[in-house]
Amino acid sequence: MEAFKSIAKPLCYFLFLCILLLFADTASAKTHYHDFVIQATPVKRLCKTHNTITVNGQFPGPTLEVNNGDTLVVKVVNRARYNVTIHWHGVRQMRTAWADGPEFITQCPIRPGKSYTYQFTIQGQEGTLWWHAHSSWLRATIYGALIIHPKEGGNYPFPMPKKETPILLGEWWDANPIDVVREATRTGAAPNVSDAYTINGQPGDLYKCSSQDTTIVHTDSGETNLLRVINAGMNQELFFTVANHKFTVVGADASYVKPFTTSVLMLGPGQTTDVLIKADQPPSRYYMAARAYASAQGAPFDNTTTTAILEYKTSSCSSNCVKTNPVFPSLPAYNDTATATAFTTKFRSPRKVEVPKEIDENLFFTVGLGLNNCPRGARSRNCQGPNGTRFTASMNNVSFVLPSNFSLLQAHHNGIPGVFSTDFPAVPPVKFDYTGNVSRSLWQPIRGTKLYKLKYGARVQVVLQGTNISTAENHPIHLHGYDFYIIAEGFGNFNPKRDASKFNLVDPPLRNTASVPVNGWAVIRFVADNPGVWLMHCHLDVHITWGLAMAFLVENGVSQLESLEAPPVDLPVC
């Protein structure tokens, strides 16, 4: 009996401590409430005022700041004339797929005059994410930063910066973006490219009618600034640099990375990169600049450069600097794949990580463009792609079609038949020389709403293989509801016998968007631990419009904590 008491006493004390720590952890977490009003707002850029769709009249939209463990409750009221949804890009949404936001995937759109409240908890993520519209091309102007600080009392795994600055890279059309995509859909041709890139909503000094509003980031000599760089552009990977300054990369997609130094970043749309920059140059003004990394040979692109200014505000600079022209940086050439590759392959996790070693689902997905023959009876004005065709895109030869009467998640949850099938192919239907001279018989994919079913807890590997159909291009592939490890990437056709030796199973980076190299491949791994329907797509919006997407249907596990939550009462109806 005495022996039992001697064991029981410390055991009770240990349990008490555990409960106390759990309570303290929960008590420090907060719930943040926000109202997003989607509305048309006059916005003037490039000398012209447009009736731009915004959140709360702001462009870019509001920055949301939370701590790891906090809950966000965002009521979205649609006062615009278009359907809308909001996606919380990179948020894991554990069991809360109803809050993920892609139109007709996890919800029906919020109709004009209606509202919907997104509620979700940040779990185990720290760093920079962002939010954006996920309906047609509205995200051209509806986007903003989502900053996740460590839990209360926690610290960064790097020296504390003096200040933090979100840097949102965007694209601006001197037109209504919805009209741009509708015109392209009507003609079958590629949409018009943007007229400007922007930094925090401003094009900068190199564009007409813009220099008076150029974004300025102030700094004191010697101080370190954490720049949270987000590529919120629609259709373009971007190089980003600051004249005469180096970056120390410390995070990407809300995961910390092993720090490394670089003078230039390359971000695909959807990706974020956290960098430390030290004001260690002579006090002056220095341009921050971004321009295209355009890997598709011969394809038109916006070949302009957006700028902001890093301005030292020390006493020696206060009067002189405003008068001096900012120092201009050297930027890589638009087709500098070597620089883009050198950057993306530097990423590592800070320490050894638990990468799935045994694989339950070994998948191989081709990603690329295609051309549909002009439909019988169609007019030539509706077939303005190359040689009288219409542009399309696909994964494993399936061009993804969104449903219209139900969202995929509703159809799955309620057992509604006929909305989708679960026969998305695990491998390409036809093997071919993916990055070589592809036979024209393989250029026209089938259309379908096909999902791939995963059991809860399945360990998944996906080879993402770019193709040379129509034109090869770097594709930023984003997976909703998950982070994944990028264990390897390379050029040419993936060869498992040759390329498995390149797999990094020790410290690969954890990302939510992978840049699949032009005419190359990337291999990702994840565990299917989040039930729901999760879209995987190219984050070049022109490509998702053409069908470069698929979705995983992850089944519920055994317990309630492994199952999708019930849908919210205000979930929009189609």
TrEMBL record:
<dbReference type="InterPro" id="IPR045087">
    <property type="entry name" value="Cu-oxidase_fam"/>
</dbReference>
<keyword id="KW-0052">Apoplast</keyword>
<keyword id="KW-0677">Repeat</keyword>
<dbReference type="InterPro" id="IPR034289">
    <property type="entry name" value="CuRO_3_LCC"/>
</dbReference>
<dbReference type="InterPro" id="IPR034285">
    <property type="entry name" value="CuRO_2_LCC"/>
</dbReference>
<keyword id="KW-0560">Oxidoreductase</keyword>
<dbReference type="InterPro" id="IPR001117">
    <property type="entry name" value="Cu-oxidase_2nd"/>
</dbReference>
<dbReference type="Pfam" id="PF07731">
    <property type="entry name" value="Cu-oxidase_2"/>
</dbReference>
<feature type="domain" description="Plastocyanin-like">
    <location>
        <begin position="38"/>
        <end position="152"/>
    </location>
</feature>
<dbReference type="InterPro" id="IPR033138">
    <property type="entry name" value="Cu_oxidase_CS"/>
</dbReference>
<feature type="domain" description="Plastocyanin-like">
    <location>
        <begin position="164"/>
        <end position="314"/>
    </location>
</feature>
<keyword id="KW-0964">Secreted</keyword>
<dbReference type="InterPro" id="IPR002355">
    <property type="entry name" value="Cu_oxidase_Cu_BS"/>
</dbReference>
<dbReference type="GO" id="GO:0005507">
    <property type="term" value="F:copper ion binding"/>
</dbReference>
<protein>
    <recommendedName>
        <fullName>Laccase</fullName>
        <ecNumber>1.10.3.2</ecNumber>
    </recommendedName>
</protein>
<dbReference type="Pfam" id="PF07732">
    <property type="entry name" value="Cu-oxidase_3"/>
</dbReference>
<dbReference type="GO" id="GO:0046274">
    <property type="term" value="P:lignin catabolic process"/>
</dbReference>
<comment type="similarity">
    <text>Belongs to the multicopper oxidase family.</text>
</comment>
<keyword id="KW-0732">Signal</keyword>
<keyword id="KW-0325">Glycoprotein</keyword>
<keyword id="KW-0479">Metal-binding</keyword>
<keyword id="KW-0439">Lignin degradation</keyword>
<dbReference type="GO" id="GO:0052716">
    <property type="term" value="F:hydroquinone:oxygen oxidoreductase activity"/>
</dbReference>
<dbReference type="InterPro" id="IPR008972">
    <property type="entry name" value="Cupredoxin"/>
</dbReference>
<dbReference type="InterPro" id="IPR034288">
    <property type="entry name" value="CuRO_1_LCC"/>
</dbReference>
<dbReference type="InterPro" id="IPR011707">
    <property type="entry name" value="Cu-oxidase-like_N"/>
</dbReference>
<dbReference type="GO" id="GO:0048046">
    <property type="term" value="C:apoplast"/>
</dbReference>
<dbReference type="InterPro" id="IPR011706">
    <property type="entry name" value="Cu-oxidase_C"/>
</dbReference>
<comment type="function">
    <text>Lignin degradation and detoxification of lignin-derived products.</text>
</comment>
<keyword id="KW-0186">Copper</keyword>
<dbReference type="Pfam" id="PF00394">
    <property type="entry name" value="Cu-oxidase"/>
</dbReference>
<feature type="domain" description="Plastocyanin-like">
    <location>
        <begin position="424"/>
        <end position="556"/>
    </location>
</feature>
<dbReference type="InterPro" id="IPR017761">
    <property type="entry name" value="Laccase"/>
</dbReference>
<feature type="signal peptide">
    <location>
        <begin position="1"/>
        <end position="29"/>
    </location>
</feature>
